[in-house]
Amino acid sequence: MKLKKEILDLLNQNGILSAGVFSFEKNHSLILEKDIPAFQKWLSENAHAKMTFLENNIEARKDPSLILPNVKNALIFLFPYAAGHRVRNKKKENAHNNIQLNHNSESILAKKLISKYVYGKDYHKVLKKQLNLIATKLQKQIGNPFQFRAVVDSIPFFDRAYAREAALGFIGKNTMLIRPGMGSFFFIATLLTDASIQDICDLNLENKNAILNLDCGDCTKCLDACPTQAFKKPYFLDANRCLSYLSIEHRDIVDNEFIPHFANTIYGCDICQEVCPYNLVTSDFKILKEFSNYHNPFQIITAKDMALMDTDQYEKWFGGTAATRAKYQGLVRNALYHLHSVSDSSLPAILDKLCASEYELILKTVMQLRVLQKA
Ligand code: B12
Ligand code: SF4
Ligand code: SF4
């Protein structure tokens, strides 16, 4: 009991409202029966596009002891990130939607061209640190040392399915883990451990049934709102058509069909979450300062700056944020697509400057856009 209180205090200090335990000994067959087949079907339909890393290590997905020997439990935490949560309280909603501009109303942040999850520091690093803190605290409390591994979107692991089975929420038709009362704008962070924590510390904070009995019902708002029709059917996202995939993970030029959608994004996409009624939450959440403080350069730089940045500026402006996932060339490509889509008059001159770029993807993008500009 004492352990639980200590841990809960630590979680509260860090703004974690939701935590759950998944026992591999008791529940792993559920993952094997439900999620492995769903995942394999998704891969077999090539819905993962060019994310071939997802094909690797299926064995570890089936047997997590290949990730951590003798793993017994997964402690799973939800970390809210969106300072822009839609809240029922109109005053708060307005405060969030009108991002406080420090500097430039043309900046990529002011124009909401980057997804909410990228606003602050890179969540992988921030959350690994948090998980290590929690593990150290637990070690102290339990007395006996145990093995653990911090997992944040980093290994072949079903972050959402395990969180669902730990009663942290349900999977929506938009494929997001949704926690009623909290929405879906959160990261999932997991601590795998060989300690028998469930016996001594039940971290489930709320009534399991209250969460598990809720679902999407007849709603189809996310499916209808997706600008590229990326949902082949409910609960099935075809990454080939998803702007999040195309702007973050795709390492080549993007098909002409999708370029006009870059008018509204340079990095990631939040639309299928923005429209979800579960994100119209009644209260706001304490968010880690690393996620709630806007990364300074995002408040200043514009799409034009991005299109023309060199690699040093890229490091200075994007280093330490999750946007580095698209890499230098990917971000320049996205910025060029944006400028084309909004018919920015400076684009022809920018394309002229970049036509001697030493970077292959940038060159390919310049050639693609020159053809489109003439058409
Ligand atoms: C690859 C990936 C992507 C891909 C593919 C997304 C997708 N829907 O599959 C792309 C690049 C498009 C993407 C986009 C985004 N991502 Co992403 N992504 C991942 C990653 C690395 C793997 C997801 C995966 O395996 N997909 C394959 C599908 C089949 O698996 P799944 O969606 O997890 O579904 C499982 C279950 O739901 C179940 N299942 C699915 N369908 C069905 C149907 C039935 C009938 C049954 C029984 C079961 C079942 O089976 C699956 C396997 O367990 C995870 C991290 C991780 N390791 O899990 C983050 C993760 C899913 N992403 C995350 C985020 C934040 C995003 C974005 C919001 C970022 C953005 N703003 O642009 C968008 C959201 C788009 C969306 N609607 O999903 C968060 C989601 C948090 C949450 N609340 O759910 C995760 C969990 C990272 C994290 N640890 O926080 N992502
Ligand atoms: S992230 Fe955007 S493009 Fe991808 S499925 Fe959701 S709404 Fe569609
Ligand atoms: S928008 Fe509607 S259908 Fe989509 S995830 Fe939310 S509740 Fe479910």
TrEMBL record:
Return any one Pfam family short name: Fer4_16
Q: What is this protein called?
A: tRNA epoxyqueuosine(34) reductase QueG
Keyword Manganese among record annotations: no
Any one of the GO BP annotations? tRNA queuosine(34) biosynthetic process
Transmembrane regions: none
Domain 4Fe-4S ferredoxin-type per the UniProt entry, residue ranges: 208-236
On the tree of life, the source organism's domain of life is: Bacteria
Q: Which SUPFAM superfamilies match?
A: 4Fe-4S ferredoxins
Isomerase as a keyword of this entry, yes or no, is no
Query: What organism does the record attribute this protein to?
Result: Silvanigrella aquatica
Q: Which Gene3D superfamilies match?
A: 3.30.70.20
